[in-house]
Design brief:
Layout (H helix, E strand, L loop, with lengths): L5 E4 L9 H15 L5 H4 L7 H11 L6 H19 L11 H10 L3 E5 L5 H7 L8 E3 L12 H10 L6 E5 L2 H9 L3 E5 L10 E3 L7 H5 L2
Parallel strand pairs: 1-2, 1-4, 2-3, 4-5, 5-6
Helix pairs in contact: 1-4, 3-4
Bound molecules: 6-O-phosphono-alpha-D-glucopyranose (G6P) and magnesium ion.
Magnesium ion binds next to loops.
């Protein structure tokens, strides 16, 4: 039933609870720059590349920086983030995530990661999840960041599965837009008020099973 089908998973906020660490690192960066950064504003950064996130952050703080300064601030955020994830363990895998990935794989569905993060591989290795994916496309593999569909189209190409037979799991508005632009169906992970463009929204992978996949 699931032959020639694939699921492409976003990483941060879908499989592992690292979205909170990206937020904390950006918040600390904002405070260092002299302004506050709320969780509501953070929704605009989810799924978005590091430099694009910085541009959004600076526009919120009404701050203008030179290219050189921007690169230094982006490095500072990345160092803060890397420090926060340095001790993560498989305990931070979100509820039901590993089980759901294992279930779909045993049903013959191919699996990929489609994450904007250049740190995706470090996180997957720390969580011992690398063997659960047939392809891993991250922020190092693409030129155009979400909401551009490049990341998901590259994942489909690596898996040799047509985009219309791929389902994306995403926790960000930018990622859902990217999935739709790629011609894929999309399951939103989080709140239906925020992720209203997804085909369905669930609170987490613990709410998913093979039967629910058939209806999407
Ligand atoms: C993910 C996160 C974003 C993050 C982006 C880039 O998509 O949702 O919050 O900004 O990756 O991450 P990086 O680790 O490359 O800075
Ligand atoms: Mg995410």
């Amino acid at each position: 039933m699931f032959k020639n089908r694939a699921i492409i998973f976003d990483l941060d906020g879908v499989i592992v609870d690292t979205a909170k660490y990206h937020y904390l690192a950006w918040k600390e960066t904002a405070i260092k720059l002299g302004f506050d950064f709320t969780e509501k504003d953070n929704e605009r950064l989810k799924g978005v590349s590091r430099m694009k996130s910085l541009e959004i952050l600076l526009s919120i703080g009404k701050i203008e920086l030179s290219q050189d300064e921007k690169e230094k601030v982006a490095d500072m955020k990345n160092n803060l983030y890397k420090e926060l994830i340095s001790n993560i363990t498989p305990n931070e895998i979100l509820p039901g995530a590993k089980q759901f990935i294992e279930t779909v794989r045993s049903a013959g569905i191919l699996t990929a990661i489609g994450s904007a993060s250049k740190n995706a591989m470090i996180v997957l290795e720390k969580l011992c999840l690398v063997p659960l994916f047939d392809a891993i496309i991250d922020g190092n593999s693409v030129i155009k960041a979400k909401p551009h569909p490049e990341i998901f189209l590259k994942a489909a190409e690596a898996l040799k599965i047509s985009p219309k037979n791929c389902i994306v799991f995403e926790d960000s508005e930018a990622g859902i837009e990217a999935a739709k632009a790629a011609g894929m169906r999309c399951v939103g992970i989080g709140s239906p008020e925020i992720l209203n463009n997804a085909d369905i929204v669930v609170s987490g992978l613990d709410k998913m099973n093979l039967n629910r996949l058939i209806d999407i």
